[in-house]
Amino acid sequence: MKILQGFLIFMGALAVLAIAALIVGYIMALLTPDIRSNMRPVVLSSEAVDSLNQKIDTMKKEAAAADTSKTKKNIELLVTEEEINSIIVMTLAEGNLPAKEMLVNFNDGYLLAYNAWNFTAFPAKTGIMGSIDTENGKPKFTVSRFFLGKLPLPGGINQSVQDIINIVIQLNAPLDEMKLNLQEVTISEGQMRLITVTKAGK
Hints:
This protein has 202 residues and is of the alpha+beta class. The protein is built from five helices and seven strands. The protein has one domain.
């Protein structure tokens, strides 16, 4: 009887510890990750939104013309921090993203992204450090480090997050719609340059 009673006390203590760990983990996931303090603010404007939309429209027209004439052509797209963040804020204001705040910084060879999610049950804050490469004419995102609040995470989480991001990229492939292959991505201070080439061509 004492053995059974001791076993139940032991299991109860484990349950309490598990619940406490979950509560602590939940609270730490809601805190702002350290990566946020390393990110610079970005000036936002409606002009930046118009600028990026115009660049994308021009890219679509050039790709369509090259496809019609069956001409191989390199088409570049330069995206600035101001443009991408202005688009993001506009999209957030329209309620099309489940987040309260998002910020992207382009640095020398890599990007930083911060998200304060708007999930009712779990309004977590996440951060990502990563880079974009090309694979078979498509973008491939590589995660260097993933942050979930201030919660310590196992090393394997980077690969899991990377896999999810690349699945989303595959499902949303605007370059495929424009019949373009991605040749090169260059991320530098404050901007990202995409070099593409038309799929059909002489």
